[in-house]
Design brief:
This protein is 47% helix and 15% strand. With 367 residues, it is an alpha/beta fold. The protein folds into two domains: 176 residues, Rossmann fold; 179 residues, Rossmann fold.
Length: 367
């Protein structure tokens, strides 16, 4: 294949950006001459993260619908028309062979403009419940790469290919190597003789998970279980005070070595974002999911239920977590049979070569 030119569009959250970068890296690896341009939304996370990964990005002035704010929504139609024109100009000047949308505000206008210009489009849907943007774009797409079964409910069946979600390279490598528990215990200053619970609330943290730890701090203190508690930036100072002097509780703002955190965990408590779940499927450890209620269309609950229905995870509602979460995790640590079953079932769902599978589909579309 000659020099391939691809536009990758979308973003807004890490859940959209990191898979997009993984797809770009896999494309470059397969076809080293590929020219890649990213298109994002001005003021969003991708405008910072994509250049850090070594790729050029152009921004559109596009924003999402703001619930409960009539004033903020008044400018939406103008932004949409403006961003469609900008997107069309980007497509005309870059002349891509293919446009790939990963979800998020910018992918709507860009893929629309690409279709209008006769450029084939590929959608990557990360969640088990498709967003509005991807539902609208599905009609014009050549192929739709999904991470969950059963997506023919929302997309044309003949366009769907189950590829999985691309995840961070170090997680795939950790899974392949089996994870170094000894190194992990040493890194976090933990005892290899005690059971370990890992609590992850994402880069920003998760208030409910933090409140659940705080509500049961005495039970944690008196237990023989050690806990790695990733609090997120905004909650860290408060949580550090809450956990002060408790030797079996490691309170961290952020975890740099997620591969090691996963390696030493016996049970993991997490939100149910698409990217987190894809990583957890590769890690193959018993998981308790607490879906965030603050996301569009409640898609984290749909993601979690896709695992619960296959006996691959336990789900606790956000509203019940303060009362039940710590108890559920301690009960699971006592039940080795249940741990084995959950590990086995979630491990079956992992797709380590998702980025490569998506590249296969992109190259078929271009060919």
């Amino acid at each position: 294949m000659g020099e391939l030119r691809a536009i990758i569009s979308g973003g807004g959250t890490g859940g959209h950006i990191f898979p997009a970068i993984a797809i770009a890296n896999a494309l470059k690896k397969r076809e080293p001459g590929t020219q890649i341009l990213f298109v994002g939304a001005n003021g969003r996370m991708e405008m910072e993260k994509v250049p850090q990964a070594g790729y050029e990005i152009k921004g559109l002035n596009i924003a999402g619908f703001q619930r409960g704010s009539v004033i903020k929504n008044l400018s939406l139609p103008f932004k949409l028309v403006g961003s469609l024109l900008s997107a069309y100009n980007i497509v005309k000047s870059f002349k891509p062979d293919v446009a790939i949308g990963v979800g998020g505000y910018a992918s709507g206008p860009l893929l629309r403009a690409a279709s209008f210009a006769g450029v084939p489009t590929v959608i990557q849907e990360q969640n088990s419940f498709a967003g509005v943007t991807n539902k609208l774009l599905a009609k014009g797409a050549k192929v739709i790469c999904t991470a969950y079964d059963g997506m023919e409910k929302v997309f044309p069946k003949e366009k769907i290919v189950l590829t999985g979600n691309p995840v961070r390279r170090e997680i795939v490598e950790m899974q392949a190597a089996g994870g170094d528990r000894a190194e992990a215990y040493k890194y976090f200053g933990l005892s290899p003789d005690c059971k370990t619970i890992l609590i992850i609330g994402g880069s920003l943290g998760a208030r409910t998970l933090n409140e659940s730890v705080e509500a049961t701090i005495n039970r944690i203190k008196d237990s023989e279980v050690q806990i790695i508690w990733q609090t997120g930036k905004i909650y860290f100072d408060h949580c550090k005070t809450v956990g002060a002097g408790i030797s079996n509780l490691k309170t961290l703002q952020f975890i740099d070595r997620m591969d090691l955190a996963y390696a030493c965990a016996d049970v993991i408590i997490s939100r149910a974002g698409a990217l987190s779940i894809s990583e957890l499927q590769l890690v193959g450890k018993p998981v308790i999911l607490v879906p965030s209620p603050n996301v569009t269309d409640d898609h984290q609950t749909h993601n979690a239920m896709a695992l619960v229905n296959k006996g691959a995870a336990i789900m606790i509602k956000d509203s019940e977590a303060k009362l039940n979460l710590t108890g559920a995790a301690f009960d699971l640590l006592q039940n080795e049979e249940q741990q084995k079953q959950l590990s086995k079932n979630i491990g079956k769902m992992g797709i380590p070569d998702a980025a490569e599978r998506i590249v296969d589909e992109i190259l078929k579309v271009v060919a």
